[in-house]
Amino acid sequence: MNETNLLALILFSPALVAAVMLFLPREEKTLLRWAALLGSLVPLGLSVVLWFQFDKAQAGFQFQVQYAWYEALNSTFHLGVDGLSLTMVLLTTLLTPISILASFSITDRVKPYMILFLLLETGMLGVFLALDLLLFFVFWEIGLVPMYFLINQWGSEKGEREITKGWIVPARTYASFKFMIYTMAGSLGLLLAIQMIGVASGTYDLPRLYQTWPVMEELKNIPLSLSLSTVKAVAFWAFVIAFALKVPVWPFHTWLPDAHTEAPTAGSMILAGVLLKLGAYGFLRLVLPLYPAEAHRYAGALAFLATMAIIFGAFAAYGQKDFKRLVAYSSVNHMGFVVLGIAAAAYAAGTQDAVIALNGAVLQMFNHGLSAAGMFFLVGVIYERAHTRNLEDFGGLFPLVPVYGGILIFTSMASLGLPGLNGFVSEFLVVRGSWPILPLPTALSMLGLLFTGAYILKGIKHVLHGPTNTHWSGHITEINSREILVMAPLMVLILWIGVWPGWILNVINAAMNSLF
Amino acid sequence: MDFPVLSVIVFTPIVAGLLILLFPAERKNEVRVTALAAAAFALILSVWVYFSYDLAAGGYQFVENYNWLPALGISYIVGVDGMNAPLVLLTGVVMLTGVLISWGIDDRPREFFAFLFILASGVFGVFVAQDLFMLFFFYEIAVFPMYLLISIWGWVKTREYAAMKLTLYLFIGSVISLVGALAMYFNSGLNTFNMLELARVGFSKDFQVFWFPFVFFGFAILGGIFPFHNWSPDGHVAAPTAVSMFHAGVLMKLGAFAALRVGIMLLPEGAQTWKWLIMGLATVNVVYGAFIAMVQTDFKYVIGFSSVSHMGLVMLGFSTLTRDGLLGAGIQMFSHGVMTALFFAVVGMVYDRAHTREINELGGFSKKMPWVAVAFIIGGLVSMGMPGLSGFVAEFPIFMGVWQVQPIVAIIAAISIVITASYIIKIIGKVFFGPLSDEFEHHIGDVTALDKVALVTLCVILITLGVYPMVMSPLVASGVQSILSLFGGA
Amino acid sequence: MDVQNFEPSMILAILPEILLLVLAGFVLACDALWPEERKRNLGWLTAGGLALILVVSLLVAVPSLQSRLVFGGMVQQDWLGFAFKLLFIFGAAITAMFAMDHAELGERGEFYVLMLVSVIGMSLMASAGDIVMLYLAVETTSIPLYILAGFMRKDVKSTESGFKYLLFGALTSTVMLYGFSLLFGLTGSTSLYGIEALLAKTGLLPVTMLVGSLMLILVGFSFKVSAVPFHFWAPDVYEGAPTPVAGFLSTASKAAGFAVLLRVLFVVFTPYALDYWPAVLAALAVVTMTLGNLVALTQKNIKRLLAYSSIAHAGYILIGFVSWSILGMTSVVFYLIAYLMTNLAAFGVVTAVSRVTGKDEIASYAGLSRRSPTLALVIMVAFLSLAGMPPLGGFIAKIFVFAAAVQAGYIWLAFIGVINSIFGLYYYLTVLKVVYLYRSEDDNQPLPVSRPYAIALGILSFGIILIGTLFAPWYTWATAAVTSLF
């Protein structure tokens, strides 16, 4: 394997598989499913190879390739990985085959579903691998389209919502529309800011921009009468809003509960597992290195929002009756820690505490990806059998489905942050790193942690414990082997990282040390 | 260059059209096949010209120069450069797909294709003309067939009104520019209509500032600039499908291109003075067009106003007079041309089967016409400027150009992206997804193989350009270079 | 310019006229001798004879570029006259072909003879070098035309039209003669060139007298070219006269008027004209164009529409006059060539259609594109040429006259001309709309087109397209015609 083209292969293999699948007959569902699954294992294998070939000692980007792409605008097709993106790539290529395996129960229009899923993977990988600002934006937006259709066409069939006066649509249409419009509107500022950067700097190449943009004295080519610091501040917030929407940071999170709830199971897995990380990745890759001064100045605001996300997310989750919506709000809650870590690092750039916080943030991204995907899948499992997600409809299912119960408890504990499992490691690191830097927000976040435990346990209690709801006896089947196979890798990794996180933290650490 | 490939491209349609007129009226299939052959031939040649252009050499290539009337300095000069080669290709593509889509026309197909081809020849001629007189000659040839095509084969309710309005508007615009062109001719004292030489003349600033609006806006009327855009939506809606494809896809580009070629390139100082007005009006086009599109209830009117909005982006790019803005405008002319041809083809396919274009009455068409649904989605994404497709490749540089001139305008114009997204998503959801009413369930069939070929061709082009901008950007950039050199260091 | 002494080669100067006379006599004789059934062939005879005359003239009688006065100063042998002569002969040949199958014209030899005599008059008009000759020629042209207009004795409208034409023509003729007499009185010479020399020499003539006489002369010519305000006769006469005659009137007769206008204005009045003459002509052009176009918008009868359209076109031609340059005059001549072909074609189609339908209402043209697609195409070519659309002759002609206006600095005039073209486009397109879009109950009945119409319309269509595309030779021809004036 040619070392230099590894990234391009990883990036495009899902799309190639999708292209091949175009020609498969649409009635052969089994063929389509297996083709998609096996096809998605290719990028996974390649990213494992990449992982092992990655040199942890060396800082900076490796495996870089650069092709002419849009020369007229000084934008190239520039790919590269460092510890941060490698982690995310691994997460993406891992979750996709798992999600596809989880989607084997879909029977309606399997072919377009699988094709969209694979295209989505390429879109997400592109964001993580891109080292060119324009290219980044392209892949950022591309990921929206498959997700929109996945929610819109294969989302939950029940429920109706009202978009504007008198226009009633199915809930999934509402959710997908909101998702799309929110994200696009949020990205508008990002688009304009990128244009401005490109025009002023004459290049879109990220490594170059890291050198030139933060120290830029004046805006070349742009006749703007505002002062440079004002312009940069506005651009900073434009970037922040776009990424904050995706993470999602309170108060830009309102699209998430609907989207997560109405999406099909695998859609939610990927949405929570990877797509939210795109936003956080944007913070780390773009906001902090390009706007160190502004990030420092506004770190307090960011930390405030993160804390709100942690606390309100937890409270909101606690109050849910819909299991899936509960897990959705838990994402808000968990991603809040990521943003807290980022905010701390922004405030005290270069200190060791900042690096610790960053390590925690990135690891939390990975961990949450695993546990959220797992939780959503498990919700999906029970939904397929019970056709309800209402917590009050369940009750004491543990004796009926013991294996499922066990797995559910395990994954929930990871989400809760039980020491010995992965969630604890990342949350500890974030708190350890942020405490010296931003004590007040960190302290408040502990409150949130308290309620995290509360809602998780509440969820488990309603589903598994208590008197058995006789309605279900005889009507609910155990988790089957395919579904166990879906959860297995996740569980293994959750445990492994919880017990011995070194293998991944070293990679992350190398990148965080030299992030900015 | 021995083989007069450009002349062959220009005259193939009209020769084929005249040939078709000689067929007996009943021989409908022979008419169609001949039309298809001619269109394919012209397309192949335009593709060949496009890819044979020597980027290293630059300038005008495949030039042919014959004296026509030396006493007045009128010559037949044609040539391609980076700006018009994509447009020639665009015309070839739209012509071919238009013929494929019109296969089902049963009322006097002979006259239909003959008039359509006269139109096509006029369009080709304008794009490659390097002599001002010739440019007008071909420009007018492209105006009158529209009248007949729309009034005879168009939508019964509004075709007469729309056809007359369109023809008069376009004619007014072109003759106003004509007077400006004549003024240039006489003022230069060179006794030539050769545009390359006229571009080097350097008219006085007062002359340029006086005449620029006449020339630019005369042509820009065909480009759909506010407030003279009124003819466009009605014309679009009333015209039969292939004519709408031509109209929005190519004809509006004709206006914008001529405005560039004759207005901006020959009167650069005039352009510098007037660019603020153009920028303002173009911004109105972009935003207002999007808003109006959003509230339409007739599917075709939505597309019509969306065209007005996207042509606004082209003219916005022109008005910046920067490398990036002009580059984006050049690519947008191509990208929007293909996209809007796709849109109108889809609208036509839906209407032919449903006999209604009211969005509220349609629904669930993806079940019956999956290819059409996918094609429309791709077109819709291009329209939104979704990265990965040609719309983004075109719009991004335009915005970059605007940043270099007036950043506020960039922010205002960007609003249109969100508005476009919302109405596109709404239409896709309403027309193609959602419940399919019973009467449609039984009466609607899928589109023909020829229709699918047309749709696939258009989609492939949009995706290719989006994924790999290098296929067009260096060519247009070289064309832009020669335009900017006229501004002497601007 | 000196009068040359007689040389035999001078016969060539009036060779076309002589041959026309011979042809007229021949036709008259054949008319007397031939039986009724073969009378129609008189048309072929006339057309063929005219074609022959055309060829012979081109071969033998082409004048040298240096013009000269011959026959005691009566005739000016130059390219201007020659070019127009050929134009008139061509127009007459076409008209003969159109008239051949017309019920009341084609079989009467007097028709052809009168037409030929009229052509003789026109030819002499175009090459007249003397006032008296000019007046004689004008009358020789007009009187047969009066009769031709009223040729359909049993038709009330035709008789009315002939009478109207006679009265109007006679009145304006008289006024013109008075103008001529004043000119003679002022200068003491009847030779156009002599007058010019005298005017140049003395220069002390009272301007008012000069201008006054010019105005009076202009009355007569305005009548001939149907310029406002002497256009009133045109719609009624065209409507009532037999259609081929209307076509002939609107083209050849008008061209003759312009030829004389060219010569008289240029030769006699140039030295005094430059100051404000262009403005006067411009005003005249504006009112003529505008009135013609605006009233045409309301017409429901196609012959009246074409009449007003002809008035409008006279206006466009007058724009060319405004620029006293070679380009301006060339554009006038070019326009006349293109216009002759176009208008003849238009009237020809009208003749062909009314021959079968018997109606001249625009509404009766509905469904024509289905009944006879070829006729519909010809009417499209003719009307689009009238509107000024490429690749037809009318487009080039219009561009040239507008260019002439711009060159002279009369930008506003060019703009008005342009706006008028738009009005014109509207009503021409409306007719085409009726032809192509509207349907009638007779859709299925094909409209037969007889041979002479087919040939004539074919020649004309071809000519219109030729002038519109390969216009260089015609332009050169027109330039040659005009240079002889300077």
Descriptive overview:
The complex is a heterotrimer of chains A (516), B (490) and C (486). Chain A has a domain at 298-516. In chain A, 71% of the residues lie in helices and 4% in strands. Chain A has 19 helices and four strands. Chain A starts with 5 loop residues before the first helix and ends with a helix. With 490 residues, chain B is mainly alpha-helical. Chain B has a two-stranded antiparallel ribbon with strand order 1-2. The radius of gyration of chain B is 21 Å and the shape is globular. By secondary structure, chain C is an all-alpha fold. Chain C has two domains: 1-268; 272-486, no CATH class. In chain C, 74% of the residues lie in helices and 1% in strands. Chain C has helices at 15-33, 41-60, 79-99, 109-127, 131-149, 156-187, 192-202, 207-225, 233-240, 243-268, 270-273, 277-296, 302-322, 326-357, 368-371, 373-387, 393-407, 411-436, 451-469, 472-483, and strands at 68-70, 75-77. In chain C, strands 1-2 form a two-stranded antiparallel sheet. In chain C, a hairpin with a 4-residue loop joins strand 1 (68-70) and strand 2. In chain C, helix 10 runs antiparallel to helix 14 (326-357).
